[in-house]
Specification:
By secondary structure, the chain is an alpha+beta fold. The chain folds into 2 domains: about 130 residues, Jelly Rolls (Sandwich); about 110 residues, Arc Repressor Mutant, subunit A, CATH 1.10.10.60. The chain is built from 9 helices and 9 strands. A hairpin with a 3-residue loop joins strand 3 and strand 4.
Length: about 250
């Protein structure tokens, strides 16, 4: 669209395409329900209810729906780069204020309209003014680095398939056909974190998505994600999210 700013309110399902997107506008997206994943060429990160993400213009990315729900909704605002003074070149997840959440809902009342006139124009100006403050409040969420080498991708595929099992360093070494020490070193060089740090991150990420299943008990989620100890699961979960699984469920899924 050849306008300075416009909105898109989208209902997503699991059939949505997850190909890379590039657009000439900045984008702010807020999840209304469900769980999404956002990726670029260096990381992937989950988005939960009321999470906000800023996607800079010309930044290749993809967003896809990963929760058990059949459908979910997002509110998006697209605007030209000159509308904010900050020069931001990377994707940023941040804690959006209640006021800007309400303003975004107002701006999303009608899809694909020019938002620079009348009441919508005044809402847009206020939204962008508050955005400059909101965007500095980084959201505390898990961030998984992406593998750059075929070796790293092979290890990650193994983790994604076997994370629910007890995995030893020798298991990684056997699929890589290297010594355990060399396997560990190569993985760290590729992704910047250790094998078992990535495994822990992935398990907690899966657990956070499973919390969307309201009738599933937290101890069963822990067991299904490879934890033999509920206390260890709670410790790891709080280390990454700063709140307990129960608090996380109430915050993002109720």
């Amino acid at each position: 669209m050849n306008v300075p700013a416009f909105s898109i309110k989208g209902i997503w399902d699991h059939n949505h395409s997850n190909h890379l997107n590039i657009h000439s506008f900045h984008q702010v997206l807020v999840v209304q329900n469900g769980v999404f994943m956002i990726e670029d060429d260096s990381f992937k990160q989950p988005l939960y209810k009321h999470n906000a993400v800023f996607i800079p213009a010309k930044k290749a990315h993809k967003i896809y729906f990963v929760s058990e729900q059949s459908k979910a909704m997002c509110h998006s605002l697209f605007f030209k780069t000159e509308y904010i003074k900050k020069q931001i070149e990377s994707i940023k997840l941040f804690q959006i204020s209640n006021l800007n959440t309400a303003l975004l809902q107002k701006l999303n009342e009608v899809n694909l309209i020019n938002l620079t006139y009348g009441i919508m124009g005044r809402c847009l100006d206020l939204f962008l003014e508050i955005l400059n403050l909101d965007i500095e409040k980084e959201a505390r969420l898990i961030r998984l680095p992406e593998a750059k080498t075929d070796f790293g991708k092979k290890i990650i595929q193994y983790i994604e398939k076997h994370y629910m099992n007890n995995i030893e360093l020798s298991d990684f070494a056997s699929i890589a056909a290297y010594s355990p020490r060399h396997t560990s070193r190569l993985f760290h060089e590729d992704l910047g974190i250790s094998l078992f740090e990535y495994l822990k991150l992935y398990r907690i990420l899966v657990a956070s998505i499973e919390l969307d299943k309201k009738d599933k008990k937290i101890n069963n989620i822990a067991l299904d994600c490879g934890y033999n100890s509920l206390s260890s699961f709670y410790t790891d979960f709080k280390m990454y999210y700063l709140i307990t699984p129960n608090q996380f469920r109430k915050k993002h899924f109720e």
